[in-house]
Please model this.
Amino acid sequence: MALKKSHISYIHLILLSTGLVAVLGLISKPKANLSNSQIESILKVKTDSIRYEVWLVQGQTNQPDHYYGEIFTPVCYSRTCLPVFINFRWDLLGNYQKYELPEEKVLTKYDHLEFVKKEYEKLQEILFNENSILKNYKADQLVTSTESINPTGVDAVTGATIKSIQKEIISGAVYSCYTLWHIAHGDISEKLKEHTEMHLKSDDLLIQFLQSPNYHYQYWAIDKTLIGGQIIREKYTKPMLSILNGENVFAANYLLKKLPSEFFNDEDEQLRFLESFLDASYPLQVSILKKFSQINLIQETSDALVLHLPETSDEQKKLIFGLLTHEKKLDEGSQKTLTGFLLQPKWEADAYRILKNQNKLFPTIKGELTNYSEKDKIF
Amino acid sequence: MIKFIFLIPLFFLAIMSHGQDRMLVEAESFDNTGGWVIDQQSFDVIYSSYLMAHGMGKQVADASTKVAFEKNGNYHLWVRTKDWAPFPKGPGKFKVIVDGKPFANEFGSSGSGEWDWYYGGQVEVKNQNLNLKVQDLTGFNGRFDAIYFSTSKEDTPPNQHDKLLAFRKDLLGLERNTITEGHFDLVVVGGGIAGTSAAISASRMGLKVALIQNRPVLGGNNSSEIRVHLMGRVDQNHFPKLGRIVRELDNGDPGNGNWDGGRYGDARKLAVVQAEPNIKLFMNTHVYQVEMEKNKIVAVLGRDIRTNEETRFTGTYFSDCTGDGTLGFLAGADFRMGRESQAETGESLASENPDDFTLGTSNLWASLEKENPSDFPITPWAIQFSDEYHIDDEKADWQWETGFGNFNTITEAEKIRDHNLRAIFGNWSYLKNQKKEKYSNHELAWVAYIGGKRESRRLLGDHILTQMDIQEGIMYPDGTVTATWTIDLHFPDAKNSLYFPGEEFFAGTEHIRVQPYTIPYRSLYSRNIDNLFMAGRNISTTHVAFGSTRVMRTCGMMGEAVGYAAYVSKKNSCTPRGVYENHLKEFMALIQSPLGNEILTLPPKN
Model:
């Protein structure tokens, strides 16, 4: 932990806090809306400089919802520390979600001015960024000089904040940002995830995760329910496949890569997959078309793809025409759609090849194909 | 120049009147381009500029023109356009309206990303002219290159770029109407910081200079069109008097992608150039052909990116300040593009194997917070973002970058720019629609449609600057320009790569610090074209060394040095190489103190 320099005890900090205007009030309590019936203490964190307790908070249906911690930490630099009271919420996989301040508590900068609204908002952004550059720094690397000339606060130092982190901190509160980020994304994250894995994992929770808009949950649940190319229980199938129609194209692509092709040889699954294709965003549509090339297409799928051709890009047309190479039973509507492509120089050869390959050509189509052949377009 | 102004109406007449039953109307030559912008960035690929509706999602004003025909009749109409974002269908829709009647079909959204002729329908020409109007429908970068009329429906124009060039030349009468400018001591191609500095430097040494720039503003990457700030120091020079011209052009540091384009000082740069009596400035002129005599460039041919007038420039010396190394390439100069291998250069930072990797191109952008909330459309054709991955920022900085060997900086410049636009608009759409609490009152204030390129060809000189030259601080006898920037080689940001493999648009870097070092003069002229200098990012370096030399104050000082070298060349009637071999002392004396030169005459104030 980057706060090793500080060996000020908890009690010292309490005493210190009472003498300073930077932080007002006493140790916070859980918020009023967290009644005892909804929370359960699961963890106590204790280091040489910080102690706090973490609770599991349950939702209205008594399902685990998130973790909640009331933090009291010194923010230290050199020989000076100030106490900060703040409450954090993590999701069930230990990902920081948001902070709140206990009643009557505020956050201040080195000049003792309270954060303005934008700074409170910026702190949330800073803490929410799990990939913050702050991850790579030690506390003594944050400013270009190490000694304070201004005894009024820990964020008052002679040197400027180093340029590379300026966008990741609040001016005048560099150590607060740094300390709080490292608590939010420190060892606690892994501990909370472990707690969920060990004590909370259940069918209901996994289904809840698969259906959640939280992408951390989606990936975790996919990995827990799709093992060795098999969905381990039937009940996971529907919520899992709903990810393909969800808003997160990245999770959808991840799932698509993990799902074995054979899964979609089942007629019902293939039709469901087809619906996903028609609703999907472009990059996902391309991934699905590539997946189609690994499975046996049923005729309904082929017909639907042909009907969709006018809505596609050149890249997709190439993929779809490729998929239809061995298709011999296209319906009349599909054949009619393909004849439209006989007039397009870029696609006429593909359309002609597929039409010629049909077991049965409908009478109107036959005529059009004959007319086309008579124009000396022989392939 | 007055005589050429006189020729312009004749020229347009030529464009509009050739042939009895066909007519080619170039988009960029419309009488009124309305809110459409002229884009010449793909000239080296498609041999033409085109018009683009860059409205940042807001419909732009119509472009319109009158077309005069020799004969009345029924004409078929084709539009040369493309779908710039075929994912699956792009947003660049527009309509063509002839004499107030719109064609039924919309253009620009076909799902095909290739330039092609699209048939529109038939029009009747009654009074030997008609009014042509092109109406943008979305403000999202619809574009068209030309409109063609023919009385025969079978007469689709050629689409292959080189065949179409011949077709354009014929129908527009380009060769018959070429303007010949006088002879110049130095022809500088490229009006970025390097080229502008080269022209000023040579001009102040008394040379007659042509400065040819293919945009309506000077400054290149530092212009208001691209908005990259000037980097590299001018206060640590081994030769402190180099850098004075760069300081004159420097309008202060507004950072990268500042919403206020005025802060980049287009007017200042223009004023400094216009104050030089020995510079003849040719804006909006893209050089795309050269005439050679053995290993010497005799002349270059440029085309006006709006009027399509062609101008021929002859010169004793030429300087390639194009960034892309276009002039050198056309002349057959030796060049490299991409990375050398460690085995070849011995550089520790070189790639293990040679490849096509280059640094990327940036299209910067900025938003502003307004009093009232605003909407931005959903952009399914753009790059898709989610809660999991998006870039939570109200403006761009240098990291917004596409290229990295995925796309060729020169031949795929349009694709790179468009990829950048898809990243910008897709991300902005996500922020505006999914993060309303933060962005509802923000509006896009500016999005660059001109790409700011970092790396293209590197023309090879008698010396190829290496990492060792830099890190060992080798002071060659011809060491001139002092460079101070780190070895700053961008690569795709790791997280961006994870989400968009092969299609990255966000960069990372690692700065390898260097002590101030000098760039030898031998890196500033071609090793096989006898009268070709170069200044800017296309000088003779390895890929690794380029990582340090490429910043604009340093490039500007290269231009200054080239101006002095051109003066010494002319005075002694020698080649650029001859300056190094036989007149180095004289040249280095100028580098030491150009004002100490007895021949120098200061230009009048205005």
